[in-house]
Amino acid sequence: MAARRGGSARGVLRTASPGIAGRRRARPQVRRAVAALLVLAACTSGAGGPSEDDDPLATIPTTTTRPEGVAGSGYRAPVLLGLLGDPDLTESSGLVASRRNAGLYWSHNDSGDGPLIYCIQGAGEPCGVWRVTGATARDWEDIDAGPGPEPTTSYLYIAEIGDNMEDQPDISVFRVPEPAAAAGAVGLPKAAPGATEPAQRFRLRYPDGPHNAEALMVHPQTGDVYIVVKAPDPGVYVARAPLDPSSITTMRKVATLPLGRNGTFSLITGGSISPDGMRVALCDYAMGYELRLPAGAADFDEVWQQPPQRLSLALRPQGESIAYRLDGKALLTTSERPRGLPAALEQIEQR
Fold it and tell me: Does residue 224 lie in a domain region?
């Protein structure tokens, strides 16, 4: 979490058709316009002081105009898909497209919630809450999907990697088979959640001492787990698959992302690898970045050496999540709930 700074609202949110693969039904324009204005007002108005678990390094952008697509990025400007309808999903800190349930997404709260994952439909409507069996939730920061021991099973990887004080000797990643969910299944609220299969806990350690981090990514083919720390010139660390739940795995540092070179990279708050394993998306509180693996590259880790392309994301009060759509043709973002209003689910789509 982080303290917010606000200003007066001057921009007007642009809305468009949802663009989710398989969703072509138009939303009522009045509902969309009202929702957009509410979100914009919340994003650009003042907020209360920092809470006890605020990140002292975080800086929330004060820009009040609606971002446009960056020329040459290959992506259109952000559009509002809808608002997160579950009142208990107040601090959406991670987001991933479901591999088992087409058109649905998984998210979770930041610190302060239980070990719960929230199902989201393509316009933000809730589709159930599940308790991750056997997991704890000290400071969950990100979620991804990837392979595991059963080749026909999709697994969720949940990152308990937040460490604002940088005093945790090791961090945890929980892996659990993805639950079955269905669009329109508004049951299974937080008060009576479903239960996942038992999760495995993997304990990881940095080779150079504790770090605070909010971005976890799982390679869709190899299952390697990547963490980008939240620091100037952020380091990229990897735990190679298969992970061993019986011991602590010391990760390896594979790259340092240059802060400020060509105006790129700030404190990284979320990450995602495209379903084809050819692109990496990262976000900070203000912008997004995409790195593309060169054609013919023999090693995925070459992606970290590529020049990042800046992406204009939605104007978010505290954006900590980014995820590729299942078809890889769009990126979605969420944020914390602004001043008690529902947070927005937004998208940038490839041109």
Answer: yes
